[in-house]
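Sequence only, no structure available. Ideas?
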Amino acid sequence: MKIEAFRFSDDGDVPNHPHWPMIVYQGALSGSERDAAAEFEDLFARNGWGDGWRNGIYAFPHYHSNAHEVLGIAAGEAMVRFGGVAGMELKVSKGDAVLLPAGTGHQRLSSSPDLLVIGAYPPGSGRDLMRSGEREKALIRERIGKVAKPLKDPVAGANGAMISLWSSNA
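Reply:
I predicted one. Tokens follow.
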């Protein structure tokens, strides 16, 4: 598994997280799984992440101001813009996972017809759906800053990349 971290600045429309990077786990699943969706659900649940769903990624820029989110690509592939218009475009494929700290913008630009994404959240997360350009920016930034660091990385548990990359004093 290859792990990369990316930080995004507030672009005026999408706040992104003020301190913590997005983490990409390329090859989080080995690729030999017959049911990658169930494998991602089990992996996330073992690490305390739940309240999940199976779907795709919205084609409009959006983020969650009150929850961190992990996305597991269970089938297909997609080109996704992360971090808003000033962010980056990244191709994600079956077996990859992406951990988005609260406030991180994401938008599907294109995908294969078979794209299936598994989403999950840390315990106690209610999740909102915020679109690019929301008006209450100060309130939204304050809400993002109050979302606690989860106890476990959704992919690798207590010793995962999130534990060190999301230090509380970043």
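Residues 36-46 form the longest helix (11 residues).
Hope that gets you unstuck.
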